[in-house]
Structure formats: structure tokens, C-alpha cells
Amino acid sequence: MHWILFSFITAISESLKDVFSKKSLRKIDEYIVAWSLRFFSLPFLLPLLFFIDVPSLNQSFYLMLLLSGSLNILATILYMKAIKESDLSSTVPFVAFTPLFLLVISPFVLNEFPGVFGFIGVLLIIFGSYILNIKQSSDGLLKPFKSILKEKGPRLMLFVALIWSISSSFDKIGVQNSSPIFWAIAINSFISIVMFPLIVYKSSKIFLQLKNNFKKLLPIGIFSSLTLVSQMTAINMTLVTNVISIKRTSSIFSVLFGYLIFREKNIKNRLLGAIIMIAGVVFITLFD
Questions:
Q1: Cα Rg for the chain, rounded, in angstroms?
Q2: How do the domains of the chain map onto residue ranges?
């Protein structure tokens, strides 16, 4: 059951990464923050190479690195755009739809099928994220879905959830053909290198922005590296669907941080959604 611990570490680290990213986006453009998320994790990941066995790499590893890396470049940029446009508590919950997409994708890519209780748990987490995004009881049951059409942040985050449901399966194959820590190092290195020409093209005064905001960007890298290592370790122990479902409970922490740090509103409905999500986690961890 160690995968449960690593999954929860992933969720908390993911949420803290969001907090520092949201703060950074006040003064720095989303392309630099997206790149920094990957690049500033490398100083904490690369030294781990001295403590692990470097695996023998095959064609499958490089193919998965290319596929997952390319998808994650797009997802990371869209993620930063989403939390820049809207509140953490109204955008982050939409990534909880990743497990729903995984229920469709994982059987074809990984031949993984969650049990009945795991399926119920995933649905509860998705339903909880739906309730969590209802701003007021008078808004109506379709309000969260209307927000996807009307608000840019939630709409972008739903697309991120779809991308991650695909890349998570590629991540597992990559881990199976290397090791959890080595894969985390490889994927971040790939994204940092490939993405750099993009930020040169899209951003202005790059080095000045990095120099002036180094202290804001460094914590993003710290929590990003912790998220990656714990997630890759967890998915090597159990079903991808289970790990990603628990990782999405980061929405709970993001709602609380959004309320406490950024003074975001509508905390009551969003806490109700959080309780439902926790019920989903209980179903996955205790009964499946």
C-alpha cells in the first residue's frame, strides 16, 4: 500500500506547485512559468543520478519520451494559461476529469481495468469536482458545464485533463522501460530543452524576467520535482487510474489554498465537493 502514500505526496506537492505558479503569473508570462516548472526541477532531480542505477534504454523508452514529452509541453502551457485566466478553485478541479478519460484510454494502451469499487471511486471524484465548481446553489445543475463554454480557464483545464489522461499511460510505459526516478529526470530534461526555443520566440526579456523572479520560480521547481518522483514511483506500483485519481485530490488542497491565500470565494460548495472526492479516494484505497 506504499503507492497510496506516494500518491498523496503527489497531490499535496501538485497543489503547492499551483500556488507558487499562480503567484508567479502575476508578474511573469505563462510561457516562462511553464518552462521554469520543468527546468527548475532539474537541480533537484539530476543529483539523483548518482544514487540510482542507470537503466539500459530501448526503443520503447525513446518513443514514450517523445510522445509524453510533446504532449506535456502543450499541457503545461495550457495549464499555466488556465490558472492565469481564472481562480485556482474554479480551474484546478477540472483536472479531476483525467480519471474518467483514463477509464476509456488505459484498457487500450495498458490493458488495465479497474475493479468495481475503483470505478465507483473514480466517478465520485469526478462528481465531487463537479459540485466543487458550483458557485451557488441557485446557479442550477448545468452551471459547471456552462462555465466550460463561457470561461477560458475551466475550458483550457478540461483539455489539459484529456492530454494528461493520454500522457499518463505513456509515462507508465516509460517507467517500465527505465525506472521511476530516471524517467522523471528524462521527461523534465526533454521538455526543458525542446521548450526553450518556444519561450525565446514567445517571451520578451527572458533572462531579465528569470533573474528578477528567481526566488518566485525556484519553489515551483522544488514541488514539481517532488510531484514527478512520487507520481512515477506510485504508478510503478499500481494502476495508473488509481494514482491519477488520488493525485486529482490536489483540487481539495487548491480550493483551500485559493481561499486562504488568494481570498477566492464560494468555499462552502467547494468544500462539499472536496468531501465527495475524499469518499472516492476511500473507495479506491480501501475497497478496490
A1: 18
A2: 2-287
CA distances from 36 to 113, 124, 166, 213 (A): 35, 34, 23, 11
Residue 237: other Cβ atoms inside 10 A: 15
| Rounded distance between C-alpha atoms, residue 143 and residue 140, angstroms | 6
All cell numbers assigned to 84: 492565469
Position 227 pLDDT exceeds 50: yes
Q: What is the pTM of this model?
A: 0.82
pLDDT digits (tens, 9 = 90+) for 229-262: 888 888 878 877 678 777 777 878 888 888 888 8
pLDDT of residue 137: 47
**DSSP helix/strand/coil, 55:** coil
158 is written with which cell numbers? 478540461
Q: DSSP for 139-168, please give it.
A: G-TTHHHHHHHH-HHHHHHHHHHHHHHHHH
pLDDT band at 143 (very low <50, low <70, confident <90, very high): low
Q: What is the pLDDT of residues 17-59, one digit of tens each?
A: 999 999 899 888 899 999 999 999 999 889 989 888 888 899 9
Enter the C-alpha cell of residue 165.
489522461
CB 144, CB 130: distance < 8 Å: yes
Distance (Å, whole) CA 53 – CA 104: 34
Dist CA 204 CA 218 (whole Å): 20
Instruction: Return d(Cα 231, Cα 244) in angstroms, integer.
Output: 8
Residues 6+ apart with CB under 8 A from 214: none
